[in-house]
Amino acid sequence: MKKATNDAAPQHIAIQGYEGSFHQEAARRFFGKQTVVIPCDTFRQVIQHTINRSEANGGMMAIENSIAGSILPNYTLLQKHPVKIVGEVYLHIKQHLLANKGVKLEDIKEVQSHPMAILQCMEYLETQPQLKLMETEDTALSAKHVAQRKSKYQAAIAGKLAAELYNLDILVPNIHTQKNNYTRFLVLKHEKDAQPVEGADKASLKFHTDHSRGSLAKALAIIADAGINLSKLQSMPIPGTEFMYSFYADMEFGDLNQLNKMLKKLEKATESVTLFGIYKNGKLS
Hints:
3 domains; six-stranded mixed beta sheet; amino-acid biosynthesis; prephenate dehydratase
């Protein structure tokens, strides 16, 4: 699958959150600026739109953050629905203090945003004790509310795209504490629409062993002996069992032949292997 070009028809992509969110920025990064987003309240709704092919061309779903870690429920969504990963985007998360045009910092009395965004900016916010902090469900929605109310006493914490879409000034840029804050987003398609990705060098899959002594070590040895880099290994409980686990793995490989040989050996050494997608490795920007 190739990224959209300016001449291609715009893709309709389901995202979690509102217009101006980091999900929309990730969708634009992959599909192009003309991408039409379908805002969803939950990740489950993103999946539902993605598998209803008449509603969306695909979905964009956050899977992990370099500070907060993995979004575990989203692994379950991948397992239970007919979707495939066709790409990924690593987005540098930059939080800004946004306000209406002409508003000065000394005018602000209240700052609103998603609880995680507030937490990410707490070091800066503690230098402004006069500000009342208000938690909301979404960073971009907070920016939208500030713009709609035209208040000079309210500000929002959100990204640059939200400032552009809602015509807000970036009053104070880059107020996040951790400067190397990245979120990894998965690009999803209905399994019937997922085409082979040119230049693919990464795969995501799930496997589980018989939980006998050394079974996981044997599986990992097969991956290592194939010369494949295991870039992530995430354990997930198997529903209906007593503390038994499956393993979600991200693997980086040189060519498909190398991957396919390894998968055949892994299938023989484990109880099951489920492939979620073969795609091109996203790059930190």
